[in-house]
Amino acid sequence: MMFPRFNATFLFIVAYLLLTASVVATPIYVGYFRVSDGPDWHEAPPVYSAREAAALVFGGQYTDYAISTHFTKINNQAWADGWGDTQHLFEPVHEDFKVGESYLGNPGEGSVYSAFVNDHHRLATKRYNFVWRIAEANPVVPEPSTLLMVGVGSLGALYLRRRRGAVSPQG
To answer: Phi/psi zone of residue 144: left (φ > 0), alpha (ψ -120 to 50 degrees), beta?
Structure first.
């Protein structure tokens, strides 16, 4: 039984789309941290972006994570606290936002911002950065293009064999 040309093309497209769709990594919710969960500002801690803080809290690399200020969807935004400045406890920033290197000494108002520091405790305890893992440390991802090529080649060989009929070993 031969497939009409339209059906074979349609099946090829559907198979390709199904196989290549499996490459997309699905984010997995892993938890949250509050801005104030970080070290006390008196200890002169380093400054962290929200993704760097997620890697510190949950392990891995900062590129493994996506951050959100909303607990049900990823918006790539985060809460941060600043030395002498609370504006980013009310207006979220990008998940990679940070300013300065550390809280060491008296850096000056608004010169240092971190997503993981206990500075303005009363406000910062109410600011949660929700964390999703977007990549595993050693992902095992099938290579769909190779599978597709092998599948198409096998179907082509099967089609040619059926079309020509079985060839006897004697010629």
So the answer is: alpha
- How confident is the model over 47-72, as pLDDT tens digits? 999 999 999 999 999 999 999 999 99
Q: Provide the H-helix boundaries in 31-143.
A: 50-58, 121-124
Pairing of strands 77-78, 28-34: unpaired
Q: Where are the domains of the chain?
A: 5-23+141-164, 28-133
Give the integer Cα–Cα distance in Å for 155 and 142: 20
For residue 95, what is the DSSP state?
T
State the residue for tokens 């198979």: 15
Quick one: 166 exposed, middle or buried, by C-beta within 10 A (0-12, 13-18, 19+)?
exposed
Please give the backbone phi and psi of residue 122, each rounded to the nearest 5 degrees, phi first.
Answer: -60, -40
Q: Give the chain's residues under pLDDT 50.
A: 3, 137
What pairs with residue 49 in β-bridges? none
Question: What digits encode the pLDDT tens for the residues 16-35?
Answer: 666 665 555 689 999 999 99
Q: Are 41 and 118 in contact (CB under 8 A)?
A: yes
